[in-house]
Amino acid sequence: MRNPGSLQQEDQGSNQRTELPGNVDTLRAQRQKLQHGLERLIDSLAEGVIDKDQFTSRMNRTKARIADIDKKIGTQAADEERRTHVRSLMSRLAELSTHLKSQLKNADFATKREIVRALVQRIEIGPTKVAVVLRLPTGTSA
């Protein structure tokens, strides 16, 4: 509560560790090229330029590459959604911290405990790290 900026620093560190190469637009452009290649491959088979065995192997490789790119696009979209959600939560926590800062200086133990109970949903303890899951409303009416 005293230093909401520390969460932002932690989030930036985790973003650097989970950053995927390339952006969604580049991946979509690659997918579009592969889709056009797939269409040309079908045309080549129809025109008799390649035989069925060549077509099957190339088609399987192209479909696998398209599926891989689709997976990367989905992962990046989900990661961006998570980052947006975390930024929203950090903003709400900063607002709450600003509001409660003066009250925390003179608060007794029972008041501090009630604040922690109101904010912390659960604490997850793993073999190498401890995660504190906060219970913060994201709406503006809260």
Provide structural commentary:
This protein is mainly α and 142 residues long. The chain has one domain (5-106). Helix content is 73%, strand content 8%. The chain has helices at residues 5-18, 24-47, 52-105, 109-119, and strands spanning 120-125, 130-134. Strands 1-2 form a two-stranded antiparallel ribbon. β1 and β2 form a beta hairpin. The protein starts with a helix and ends in an 8-residue tail after the last strand.
Name the descriptors:
2 strands; two-stranded antiparallel ribbon; mainly alpha
Major sheet strand order: 1-2
Give the class from helix and strand content and strand pairing.
mainly alpha
Helix coverage percent: over 70%
Based on CA inertia axes, which overall geometry fits? rod-shaped
Give a brief description.
The chain has four helices and two strands; from the N terminus they run ααααββ. It has helices at residues 5-18, 24-47, 52-105, 109-119, and strands spanning 120-125, 130-134.
Secondary structure topology:
Layout: H1 5-18, H2 24-47, H3 52-105, H4 109-119, E1 120-125, E2 130-134
Antiparallel strand pairs: 1-2
Helix pairs in contact: 1-3, 2-3
